[in-house]
Write a sequence for this structure.
């Protein structure tokens, strides 16, 4: 009886090469993933393309002068040489309003985050966290209307108090007795608007405080405050700074709420209680309605400056946040 | 048979818990602070609810500080001072939320009536008495804008999240960074971009799709980041099981990972919608604010809720302001419903059907 030789199976090709479906899948997902790069790049290109002429004719004056005048010459056409576009007043206004928001909003937000992380009973914590997260989804036009109709009256009263007792500090001086619709009140509205974002970032960072270090602090007989000072604050410091900068970025780009609350006047105003101010975003909205196509190009340039500014602040913030937890005892 | 005396198990002692004496002390401090606030408001020219609150919290912190100092010295006093401060901070943080909700309801409910949901504004102006006209056109417009924005942004957002969690190629770090940077793009800049990229060169007029594109830009980062968080929570056992069964990466992602994360991905979608539903600045630049119903996002001015509120507010008469608040109330109700839905879905355990 002869034994049939077993058929030797052909050698299989063993490979890590992805199959066709996987290659397609990876291609689709990667191109989807790159969309954020594409969109940001397109925003930059289109705003630069439209704003380029303005930036070229105005040069550095675009950032340093405070004059916005679209001149039409005798022939009825736009005259780029005679027109003046400068956004210094609005840039300063953006900074002033956003800084007020940060100065007022951040202590409240960080305090609230500390309370929610280390002090609050479970029930209160759940309710408050939901409420604050919900506030993050409120439309900005709502904050604007609320600021205009509700906060305005209290804010004026506080402004008068500040002016009465602190007018020896230059920024609280009033050149004329008008306190309605001031940068101070706009800053307060923005402070309310950044509270949810700063609170939730701070809360997230505080909740990552290493438990063993906290327990060690308690075991050494520390009070809760001693624990916070020795463990939680050093641990969370850089993350909170990042959260604050994210709040700053949000406050710098806000349009509708500022437009509603603030009396937009095209001048540099350091007196935060005085009824004049503005920021780049609200200025764009204000001028957009009656702008000629050429003036709109100048507004695009302003938008470009705002875009780059917020991009820088946000990127710095994200770098700082992602480094959290590397410091502390 | 001897009876074994049952010894009651000793109650665990909780030396850290508040004793009745502690509680009565706390109640006493609160009472004292309240009395001080009433007294100060009665005597000094400071008036109003906020004055009561401010003095109450200040008085509470001071009295608490003194009491703790006498009981346990400086460290305890500083501790209670700090507790008082952070409690005040959370009170201040929550006050605007309550104030906003109360304001919207108290000013908006006067403008609510059934014709809001059955009529549009094509034959009425904002200054007409409140009972006339409605915001059906605005609700339809917002609905269309958001749906189209969702159709554009959700696939891109989820693909981005899939890239960051499943593929993890060499662009992972930069893309993560860019998505975060993108979430900070001001809404007016998104509006200007669409204006420059589509309205100036092509359409030269307002329509709905432009608004949707701008909203999509604002929505993508929210969807991508939330989806990424959800996909991170899917245990890698599931992915490995998919691959071990002989599936390609595509099949294990499409048939295992994504279904497991489904409710989380829906949450991400809803949060994105809630984020953009009330967005006003790009709408004002791009879509126009017609008062007539328009079902076509590709042509014609498209009214929407934020636009309605904005126009009504700008008209400035008592009737139009009431209309604005009613519009805000409707918008807010939509946002709250979306938010609650996202919460309910998000609280479900990931991986359950």
């Amino acid at each position: 009886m002869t034994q049939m030789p077993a058929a030797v199976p052909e050698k299989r090709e063993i490979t890590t090469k992805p199959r066709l479906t996987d290659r397609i899948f990876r291609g689709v997902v990667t191109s989807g993933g790159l969309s954020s790069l594409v969109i940001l790049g397109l925003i930059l290109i289109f705003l630069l393309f439209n704003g380029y002429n303005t930036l070229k004719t105005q040069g550095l004056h675009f950032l340093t002068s405070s004059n916005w005048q679209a001149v039409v010459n005798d022939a009825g056409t736009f005259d780029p040489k005679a027109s003046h576009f400068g956004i210094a007043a609005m840039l300063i206004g953006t900074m002033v309003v956003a800084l007020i928001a940060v100065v007022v909003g951040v202590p409240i937000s960080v305090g609230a985050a500390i309370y929610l992380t280390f002090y609050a009973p479970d029930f209160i914590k759940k309710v408050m966290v939901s409420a604050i997260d919900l506030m993050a989804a409120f439309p900005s036009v709502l904050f604007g209307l609320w600021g205009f109709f509700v906060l305005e009256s209290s804010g004026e009263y506080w402004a008068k108090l500040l002016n009465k007792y602190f007018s020896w500090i230059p920024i609280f001086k009033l050149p004329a007795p008008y306190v309605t619709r001031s940068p101070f009140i706009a800053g307060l509205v923005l402070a309310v608007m950044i509270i949810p974002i700063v609170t939730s970032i701070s809360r997230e960072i505080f909740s990552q405080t290493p438990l063993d270090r906290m327990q060690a602090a308690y075991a050494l007989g520390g009070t809760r405050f001693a624990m916070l000072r020795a463990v939680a604050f050093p641990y969370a410091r850089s993350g909170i700074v990042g959260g604050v900068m994210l709040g700053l970025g949000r406050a710098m780009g806000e349009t509708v709420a500022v437009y509603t609350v603030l009396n937009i006047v095209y001048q540099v105003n350091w007196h935060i209680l005085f009824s004049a101010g503005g920021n780049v975003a609200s200025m764009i909205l204000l001028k957009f309605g009656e702008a000629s196509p050429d003036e709109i190009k100048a507004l695009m340039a302003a938008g470009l400056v705002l875009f780059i500014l917020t991009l820088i602040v946000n990127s710095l913030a994200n770098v700082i946040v992602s480094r959290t937890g590397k410091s502390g005892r | 048979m001897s009876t074994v005396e049952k010894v009651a198990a000793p109650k665990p002692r909780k030396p850290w818990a508040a004793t009745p004496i502690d509680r009565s002390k706390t109640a006493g401090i609160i009472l004292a602070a309240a009395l001080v606030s009433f007294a100060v408001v009665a005597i000094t020219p400071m008036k109003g609810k906020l004055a009561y609150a401010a003095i109450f919290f200040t008085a509470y912190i001071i009295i608490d500080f003194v009491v703790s100092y006498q009981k346990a010295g400086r460290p305890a006093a500083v501790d209670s001072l700090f507790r008082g401060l952070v409690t005040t901070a959370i009170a201040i943080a929550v006050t605007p939320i309550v104030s906003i909700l109360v304001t919207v309801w108290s000013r908006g409910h006067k403008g609510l009536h059934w014709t809001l949901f059955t009529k549009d504004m094509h034959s009425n102006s904002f200054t007409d008495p409140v009972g006339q006209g409605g915001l059906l056109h605005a609700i339809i417009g917002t609905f269309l804008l958001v749906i189209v924005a969702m159709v554009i942004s959700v696939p891109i957002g989820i693909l981005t999240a899939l890239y960051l969690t499943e593929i993890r190629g060499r662009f992972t770090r930069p893309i993560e960074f860019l998505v975060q940077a993108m979430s900070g793009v001001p809404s007016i800049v998104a509006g200007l971009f669409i204006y420059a990229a589509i309205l100036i060169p092509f359409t030269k007029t307002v329509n709905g799709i432009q608004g949707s594109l701008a909203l999509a830009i604002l929505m993508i980062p929210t969807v991508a980041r939330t989806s990424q968080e959800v996909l991170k929570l899917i245990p890698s056992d599931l992915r490995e099981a998919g691959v071990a069964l002989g599936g390609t990466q595509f099949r294990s992602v499409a048939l295992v990972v994504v279904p497991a994360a489904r409710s989380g991905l829906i949450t991400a979608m809803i949060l994105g919608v809630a984020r953009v539903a009330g967005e006003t600045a790009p709408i004002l630049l791009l879509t126009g604010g017609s008062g007539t119903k328009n079902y076509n996002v590709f042509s014609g001015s498209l009214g929407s809720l934020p636009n309605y509120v904005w126009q009504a507010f700008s008209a400035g008469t008592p009737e139009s302001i009431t209309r604005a608040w009613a519009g805000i109330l409707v918008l807010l109700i939509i946002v709250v419903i979306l938010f609650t839905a996202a919460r309910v879905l998000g609280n479900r355990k990931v991986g359950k059907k």
